[in-house]
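Incident review: delayed structure delivery

Summary: a single-chain prediction request sat in the queue longer than the usual turnaround. Root cause was a stuck worker, restarted by the on-call engineer. No data loss occurred. The affected request and its eventual output are reproduced below so the record is complete for anyone auditing the incident later.

Affected input:
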Amino acid sequence: MTSISIYLFAGDFAEVLRRYERGDQQVYQTHNEVARLIHDLLGMHQRLNIYSFVTPERGVERPMDRLRIINLGAKDYSAASLLESAVAEDDAQAIVAHFPNIELLRAISAKQRRAMAVLATSYNRTGLRSIFEKRKVTSLLNSSRFELVSNHCLPATRHLARIGVKSEKLIAWDVPHPFHPGSYEPKRLATRRSFNAVYAGSIVEGKGVVELIEAIAFMRRRNTIELRCALAGVGDINAMDALARKLGVADLLSFVGLIANNEVFNMMAAADLVIVPSRSQYPEGFPLTMFEAIASRTPIVCSDHPMFRPVIVDRRNASVFAAGDYRSLATAIWRTLSDSDLYAQLSNNATLTWEALKGPADWRTMILKWAGEGPSSPWIQDRLLPAIEQRVVNTV
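Output delivered after worker restart:
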């Protein structure tokens, strides 16, 4: 019997399995895929360890035969020693690192085990420390220990190649999406002064929430458009609420917390705008929030984050603003909600954007193929970045 360990950043995966078995809604869209992967790996007679890094408490659960769920109890990303100790004691024959902590990658690289890295990130920060971090990550991912390196969708995977990760081991992953723009009618703009927007993601500065609040306040001061915004997610809610109160727009914001994925989508579908304001240096891959927004056909206002630029084009499939600039964000919001033709065009183009974004490798199948057949699997080889790029060249 072979064994595999998967290191995930955070989550109660025993509860994920219980929700899956009951048919209940998951908080995160991807959690049903995690549950299916667990069942599939156990069906391959694997012995499976699921490590969850950031959890309220430490402990081990055994919800199924041959499955251990190890909650490491970290309070934040800095508790890397917990990862190093876990990897040192891990006797699995294959290891999947599902987030790019340097200490985790280094500890796995030092083991005499097969390994792959599955990421959803990018490296856009500037400065000397960030340059050294990028070099360390690239060196670790290029080590022979990591047989495969995957990032979420093609823009973020191409980004890894640009910073020096060997393209011959790169593969872009995606997951099945429960919503599709083809299932919804394009939207039209109803002229009025008050509108509703949705933001979904971590409530932190790096995701551009400060600029979002400042833009709403700026529009109120200018008496242009009144924008109410619901923010779904967790993070620095107290600080953001305090900022909203200071700027006099607390009545325009509602922090709804962590809610089920279908509730987030329904909010997007009912809204006039979806706003994705990530700052340029935020280590964003291509967020699932963007897929949900596109599927809802609600026009998107988003920053010019480096991971968005290859696919998201201003006035074609989103209204794009300069990241970190609340005045630019306010202008993009006003432009979208005052131009009925632009609004309709952004909604109409959702299906084209959707097709351009889809990743070539299904996340669950990719891990199963790697676990069972290794990186030489024909399925994997056909989806590696060089093979994808060659097919693009051949179709031009």
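Verification: Residues 181-356 form a domain with the Rossmann fold fold (CATH 3.40.50.2000).
Action items: add queue-age alerting; document worker restart procedure.
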